[in-house]
Design goal:
Layout (H helix, E strand, L loop, with lengths): L4 H21 L16 H11 L2 H7 L1 E5 L14 E5 L10 E4 L19 H6 L3 H17 L4 E2 L23 H16 L4 E7 L12 E3 L2 H5 L2 H12 L3 E4 L3 E2 L2 E2 L4 H11 L5 E4 L8 H6 L4 E2 L1 H4 L7 H8 L5 H17 L14 H15 L1 E5 L12 E4 L7 E2 L29 E2 L3 H8 L4 E4 L4 H10 L2 E7 L17 H11 L3 E6 L14 E4 L7 H9 L44 E3 L9 H7 L16 E11 L2 E10 L5 E3 L2 E5 L8 E5 L2 E3 L4 E7 L7 E3 L4 E4 L2 E8 L5 E9 L2 E3 L11 E6 L1
Parallel strand pairs: 1-11, 3-4, 4-5, 5-7, 6-8, 6-20, 7-10, 13-16, 13-17, 17-18, 18-19
Antiparallel strand pairs: 1-2, 2-3, 8-9, 12-19, 14-15, 21-22, 22-27, 23-26, 24-25, 24-30, 27-33, 28-29, 29-32, 30-31
Helix pairs in contact: 2-13, 5-6, 5-14, 6-8, 14-18, 15-18, 16-17
This protein binds beta-D-glucopyranose (BGC).
The site of beta-D-glucopyranose has 8 residues, from loops.
Amino acid sequence: MNLTKTHLATFIGTALLLCASACAADAPVNPQQPWLDTRLTPDQRAALALKAMTQDEKFQLIRTEFGDTNNGHPMPAGALGSAGYQPALTRLGLPALQESDAGLGVAKPLSSGATALPSGLATAASFDPALAYAGGAMIAREAHRRGFNIMLAGGADLVRDPRNGRNFEYAGEDPLLTGLIVGNAIAGIQSEHLVSTVKHYALNDLETARNTLSADISRSAARESDLLAFEIAIDTGHPGSVMCSYNRLNTVYTCEDDWLLNTVLKHDWHYPGFVMSDWGAVHSAAKAALAGLDQESAGETFDNQVYFDRPLRAAVASGQVPQSRIDDMARRILRSLFADGVIDHPARPAPIHFAADRKVARQAEEAGAVLLRNHGALLPLAASQSVAVIGGHADKGVLTGGGSSAVQSPEGNAVPGLPPSAWPGPRIYQPSAPLAAIARHAHGKVVYADGSDIATAARLAAQSAVAVVFVEQWAAESFDSPTMRLPGNQDALVAAVARANPHTVVVLENNGPVALPWLDQVGAVLEAWYPGAAGGDAIARLLYGDVAPAGRLPVSWPRDETQLPRPQIPGAGLAAIGLPPHGQPDQRVNYDIEGADVGYRWYQRKGIAPLFPFGYGLGYTHFAYSDFTVHTAHGRVEASFTVSNRGARRGVDVPQLYATLPGSGEVRRLAGWCRVDLAPGQSAHLHVVADPRLLTRFDEAHQRWLRPAGRYVLQLGHSATDFQGEGAVTLPKAEWPADAAPHGAAQSCLASRG
Ligand code: BGC
């Protein structure tokens, strides 16, 4: 799983070529339905199908229904009990659209079960685009074999706040990392003949008041942060659909924002696919259609009315919306269905290979868990040590985030019945128990305490060679955590166990950064995120060194809320679990406080030291960098360096290239990275090209990307704050995309080993 991005692009390209020729070979063409001719391009096929469509058929295509029962709405006949459904257009040979959530696996129907990937943040922490691709392909294979042809995946909102309830669905705070990880996950999904979305476009960075909140940010700052993540994800993965979000952007609902949809997405980025709404995110017919929304999702259940039927037909009849716009909406949807293979490779029920899929989930967790502390080399554990396993339902399974993306195992919920029972619950645990997995590794005695009684837990810890405490934080769509504190008595539990036995390892199963008031008292801390279908196995394999932790933080880890751009989330206390999001107070959130300087850039700008920086993560060995040079070649900035494994164990390193633009003070940007697996004593000589998109600023006055003239400092980092290697190049002013450079040059890393 260590393909470079360059290899991956070649791999994707070859796969597509093979498919195109194989598909073309066996396609008998019905002259009545020329759009089914696989030799034609998606654009040609969409144009032909559109020409044959009646107005009613077009209006069928531009809206979906909820695919399940809800609030008295019966499930439509033919739906699969999931997020979205549209009946087949049989006359045209077009299948029903069956839409499934989401990026971590097939979420519904819950009872059927599916393989859960670990959190999106775990995949991002791997810094491994090939792993993201493999995860996407795995969940899409399961979806296709359940009859789905659209996956509502591709969460690309930036993590601007560790308390945001959906961080576990996203890929961190950096636009390049998010764009490449999410883009590759999308490419993996679409390789299985499904349309993937990228969502939630855009700036849906908090759940509190998400249906009414206005994310206020200057346009150039948006372009250089959240929108850049989407731009790179789209460039990399070519999702068939973009899902516009619930929130408003600078007071305009995103699903009716002409600038966001028409100007940025469709004009500037030349996006050829379709925009679908989030569920309940449509507020108008003509305004939304004219702004660029192409498909209304589940309006009969979640919107005030179905806007893209009678109201939109009336707007066409009155001339307010031209017929050409309706045609464009239908054409874009058709184009994506053809381009992604939905028509040529119909989704049909087929057996699912759960054992193989579980391995994909396990590998993602093993590559993405981040070792935050390992005092005195407490880890890896020795099999001979006796162990007290404590808390976190570790005897049963591992936690999953809640809301529409929650995936339940085919074996069911390992800890049923915990609140909340209603949306955004249920609270689901994957039946992969860390306790059993630890017991399989340990030859010494293994005991368990559930942590509800602190004295009992401390007593078991004192009687054992080591204690492993599992702490958890359930987060879900529709609400944010008001604070960074771990819920319940868990901080007191960890402190007491650590007092009883300093050889205490804490394993975090959580949405992301939380306060760690006991950090200095414990021996080791492993950030396991929500660990996915094989989480228990993966955690035990990491603790015992079957595999070394290799994850690097895709988010900065603040000490506490006071270090954040917004120490308090407006109204977060009001958004208690289970409250419907509708009807929350209107809020405006000022994202211009940090602007484009999200996460580590904010801390650098303010001179604040977070508890752990972006890009940080330990392993069971250590790496040194040498021979760092930077130079320009073919108009690009390239860095070369040597990475050496200086420890006694094999391990994966992620050397990171940061660029400081002229006049940026201390604010650096991640411009590329490598991921390299080295045996003890082994070295590799590596080259990274700084992604040109990260060397530019958006020039709002002239509506273009500009690379300013001046001195660019390039630093090689173990993280965003720990550098070993620095150089500089002086570059002339240039516009991006440059004529010679292909748009969307991806991060690349070339290696030669010694
Ligand atoms: C979520 C989307 C999801 C949709 C369909 C919404 O509540 O925001 O991410 O795809 O529901 O379930």
